[in-house]
Amino acid sequence: MKTYKYVARDSSGFKKEGSKQASSSNDVLGFLREQGYIPVFVEEISNTIQERGPKKARWRRIKSADLSTFCWQFSTMIEGGIAITTALDTIADDMENLYFRDVLRKISQSINRGESFLGGVSQFPNIFNRLSLAIILAGESSGNLAGAIKRLAIYYEERDKLAKKVKGATAYPIFVVSFIGVILIVIMTFIIPRFRTMFANFGSKLPAFTLAFMKVYDMICNNLIFLIGIAFFAGMGIYLFYTKTRQGHRFFSAVSLKLPLFGKIFSQSFISMYCRTMSTLLSGGVSMLEIFDILSEMTRNDIIKESIIKTKGHIVEGQGIAASMSRTPFFPNMVVKMTQVGEESGSMPIVLEKTADYYERKVESTIQTMTALIEPIMIVTIGAIVLVVVLALYLPIFSISDFSK
To answer: What is the pTM (predicted TM-score) of this model?
Structure first.
C-alpha cells in the first residue's frame, strides 16, 4: 500500500485536504467520488518526499506541436475522470521539453493553492496566448473544459502543419541562393587564381572576353572589404527602417504581400489561419469582438492588421461580418461570400473550417508551383555561371591551339 495526499472539493466548493493509503491513485479517486467529492489533486507522498529539485530547462521554446500534444493528452485524461493536477503532473513527467515540464508543474502547484486552471495558465502568456485563454475561459464557464482543450489541440495541430508548409516554401529559395553563392565562392577562391597564374605569361594576347572577366574579378577582389561594408550597412539600414519606423514597417508589410508567389503564400496562409482561428473561437463561445481583438494580435503585417481592425470597427457600427470584411481590400471575395453563407445559415464555424481547409490546399498548390519554377531557374542560373567561367578561362587555351596550327 502507498500513501497519497489529496485535495478535493464538495458540491458547494468547500475544500477538503487529507491523505489515504491505497494501491493506486485511481483507488483514491474512486474513494473521493464515492464520498461525493470532486478530486482536484492526488499525489503519492513518497514521490513528493523523494523528489529532487527540478532540472534546469535547457530551452525555452515551445512549438505548436508540443502544445498540440499536450492538449490531446490533457483533454483525454480529464475526459477519463482524472483530476486536473494529476493529469498535469503525469504529462509533465513524460515531457521532453524541460521548460514546458516546469511550466506544467507550476500550473499544477497554482491549482493546488486554490486557483482555477485558467488562473494557472494565464501566468504564462508567452505560451498560452490570448486565443488559448479565451477558449479555456469559455470551456470552464460552460463546464466543458475537455471539449475546449480538444478544440485547442486540433487548432494547434492544423496551425503547425500550415507553418511547416510556409517555412518549407521560404527555406527552399534561401537554399538555392546560398548554393549559388557557394559555387561562386569556390570558383573565385580555387579555380580562377590557378588560371590567372597560367595567364600571367600571355600578356595582351588574352581574348577580350577573358580580359573583361579578369578585370571584373580583380575589381571584386580589390574592393571586397568595401563591398562587404556596403552590403552590411545597407542591410542594417533596411533592418532599422523596418523595425524602428512605422513607415518602414508598413512599406515592407505591403511589399511582402505583393511579392511574386511569396505574396500569395503569405496572404493565403494568413487567411487560412484567420478562418480556422475564428471557427475555433466561435465554437468555443467567444464573443465576436473579442475574436477580432485576438486576430489582430496574430499578425505583424500592418496591412493585414489594419484590415482586421477596420472590420471590427464596421461590426461595432452595426454591420454584418461579411459586409464589414467586404469594405477592406485584403479579404478575397470568396472568403466574404463564405462568411455571408455562414451568417445566413447559422453555421459559421463549419463554413469557416471548410474555407480554412480550402485555402490551406491553395497554399500547398502555390508552393508546388513555386518549386516547379525555382528548379529550372536554378539550373539555368548555375549553367549560365559555369558557361561564363568556362568561356573566360578556356578561350585563351583555344586561341593558343589555333595559333600553334
So the answer is: 0.68
